[in-house]
Amino acid sequence: MLKIAVIGSNDTVIGFGALGLQIFPVTDGEEALKCLRKLTRESEDYAIIYIEENLAEAVQSEIERYKDSPAPAIILIPGREGSTGRGLSALNAAVERAVGTNILE
Amino acid sequence: MARKAVTPTRMVLNQLKGRLKTAVRGHKLLKDKRDELMRRFMEVIKQNKELRLTVEEGLTRAFASMQVAGSVMSPAMLQQALMYPRRSVELETSFRNIMSVNVPEYTFRTKGSDPSEIYPYGFAQTSGELDDTLDALSKVFEDMLMLAQVEKTMQLLAEEIEKTRRRVNALEYVMIPELQENIKYITMKLEENENATKVRLLKVKEMVLSQAHDFK
Fold first, then answer.
1. What 3-state class would DSSP assign to A43?
2. Does A77 contact B at CB distance below 8 Å?
3. Interface test with chain B among A76, A91, A105, by most B beta carbons within 10 Å
4. Which of A96, B25, B52, B126 has its CA at 20 to 30 Å from residue B191's CA atom?
5. From the list A1, A14, A91, which residue is nearest B90 (CB)?
């Protein structure tokens, strides 16, 4: 049985905990990277990993790594400060990759 | 284009012609595949964009009411109220095939005493805003799940399109022209040989005739 993980600052993830998701509160990017590594390498229980946008910078390499494999899906969600537009950049990157240029702009 | 060394014989010519036929056919098929993938990809992108906006909006709203809850209650209380979830979410993944790309499909099940019961705390010591927060979060959660599915699909399709596009281009601009050039080279070489033989024969005939009739 697969699980869903949420990585982010304590304030952000705590609400998801009540929904029944596995939460992993972290304080900075380095910790997030460590946490994500643990979730992806040491277990296969997590099919979806949501991660807060402002931590995305630190874990970019991990995200790239799992981009082409069917599992797990690593998805950015906005944090408490609201959306930074980083989530949409994943979409633009995919478009650029498929088409060769960004046709959305 | 640099031509690879080919032996100009009829057998090689036939082989090359066969390969050219296969290459052209493969090129057409791959091109069709690319076009269809692209069409699907566009649909997925549109869906992804909409979902992301919905999710971002929903989350912002949930966090806002959480902020209010956090200001009404003490952080320790908040932490305590949410510490022991009453339900847990289990996820099931199945795969769907889009043009030979396996994309995941998620369905979730909640495990708990009562699935509709999402508040893991008693109502006496918590504020109403916290209820709102959890309500909003559980609503946005379904969209988040959809988003995960759509986003993964998008990434996998993008990879496949990139691969297919490269193959199409390699066939169109490298393989097929090279084969055509080789075929042309062999055809010309064979013609040349034929001409040489013809001329030689004419020459020999002339020599033989002049000897036989003792022309001067």
1. coil
2. yes
3. A91
4. B25
5. A1
Closest CA to A74 of B147, B47, B90: B147
pLDDT at B23 over 90: yes
Q: Rounded to the nearest 5°, which phi and psi values hold at A79? A: -90, -160
Q: What's the CA angle centered on B48, arms B43 and B49, to 5 degrees?
A: 105
- Is-contact A26 A55, C-beta < 8 A? yes
For residue A95, the chain B residue with the least C-alpha distance is B158
Secondary structure (3-state) at B116: coil
CA dist., res. B153 & res. B159, Å (int): 10
Q: What is the rounded CA–CA span in Å between residue B65 and residue A15?
A: 11
Where do the domains of chain A lie, and which CATH numbers do they carry? 3-80 (3.40.50.10580)
Q: Nearest CA to CA, how far is B36 from chain A (Å)?
A: 13
Query: What domains sit in chain B, N to C, each tagged with a CATH number?
Result: 10-210 (1.10.287.3240)
- Asked if B89's CB is within 8 angstroms of A99's CB, the reply is no
Q: CA torsion angle for A88, A94, A100, A101 (degrees, to 10)?
A: -10
Q: In angstroms, rounded to a whole number, what is the distance separating the alpha carbons of residues B3 and B179?
A: 9
- In this complex, is the C-beta atom of A4 within 8 Å of any C-beta atom belonging to chain B? yes
* Nearest by CB: A94 against B82, B147, B158: B158
Instruction: List CB contacts (< 8 A) between A86 and chain B.
Output: none
What is the band of B164 on the pLDDT scale with cuts at 50, 70, 90?
very high
Angle (deg, nearest 10), helices B10-72 and A86-99? 170
The pTM of this model reads 0.82
| Residue tagged 């199409």 (tokens) | B168
Please determine, for residue B39, whether its predicted confidence score (pLDDT) is greater than 60: yes
Interior CA angle at B135 toward B129 and B140, to 5°? 125
Residue numbers in chain A where pLDDT is lower than 70:
82, 104-105
**Is B157–A88 a contact, with Cβ atoms under 8 angstroms apart?**
no
Is the CB of A91 inside 8 Å of chain B's CB atoms? yes
